[in-house]
Design brief:
Elements lengths: L1 H68 L1 H10 L7
Helix pairs in contact: 1-2
Length: 87
């Protein structure tokens, strides 16, 4: 009976090995996809940051121009609607 048990154990071991190899391939595939998604997210975040910096620069320039051209109205507006507090 010993050889039959050895064949049975060997077959189970081979099946588990194949299953583990398939799971490892799946995990590697998912990791690759996750890395690609993360890289896309980082790229989008940097693009948003650039856009926000450009917008802030433009708004600051417009505020400066408004303050210079219409000082009384600008002072009245800024006292009525103060700028948000930055952290």
């Amino acid at each position: 009976m010993q050889p039959t048990n050895d064949f049975h154990s060997s077959g189970e071991l081979n099946a588990k090995t194949r299953e583990l190899m398939a799971l490892q391939a799946l995990a590697q595939s998912r990791l690759k996809a996750t890395r690609a998604n993360f890289a896309d997210g980082i790229k989008a975040a940097k693009e948003v940051q650039r856009d926000l910096e450009w917008t802030q620069k433009r708004v600051s320039a417009l505020n400066a121009r408004a303050a210079q051209k219409y000082p009384a109205q600008y002072k009245s507006a800024t006292s009525k609607y103060p700028a948000p507090i930055e952290n």
